[in-house]
Amino acid sequence: MDWAVEAVADYVENVRPRFGFPDHPALWITERGGRLQPGSINDRFEAYRDALKLPKGLVPHSIRSDPQTPHEAWDWHECSRVPDSGDFGVVAA
């Protein structure tokens, strides 16, 4: 899980400051300074999933439970940028 620590550290150092709101107590905020809500996480995930034509049964909890299981079950092979978004997503093999 060292990668997770590095990813959060990178977010804290390089991404979070770009949102502004330096005195806001939340780590994960929206571009308008509100707290990131679970529903918005799901909405974004669904948009990426659908854009990548991944199975509708894939939900954030699928990945949270066991990162290796969905990878094997859906034969994912790499992470790459989601077209026209600049964000990262999983590409099916």
Explained architecture:
- The structure is a single chain.
- This protein is an alpha+beta fold and 93 residues long.
- The protein has helices at 2-15, 38-51, 60-65, 68-73, and strands spanning 76-81, 88-92.
- Strands 1-2 form a two-stranded antiparallel sheet.
- β1 and β2 form a beta hairpin.
SSE blueprint:
Layout: H1 2-15, H2 38-51, H3 60-65, H4 68-73, E1 76-81, E2 88-92
Annotation field: number of helices = 4
Structural class: alpha+beta
Biggest sheet, in brief? 2 strands, antiparallel
> What's the pLDDT, averaged over the residues?
76
Which of globular, elongated, flat, extended, rod-shaped describes the shape? Answer: globular
Backbone CA Rg? 15 Å
- Give the number of DSSP strands: 2
Q: Which residue ranges are poorly predicted, with pLDDT under 50 across at least 5 consecutive positions?
A: 77-93
Distance linking N and C termini = 25 Å
Oligomer: single chain
The portion of residues forming beta strands comes to: 5-15%
Q: Considering DSSP H and I runs of 4 or more, what fraction of the residues is helical?
A: 40-55%
Element-by-element helix/strand order: HHHHEE
Biggest sheet: strand arrangement? 1-2
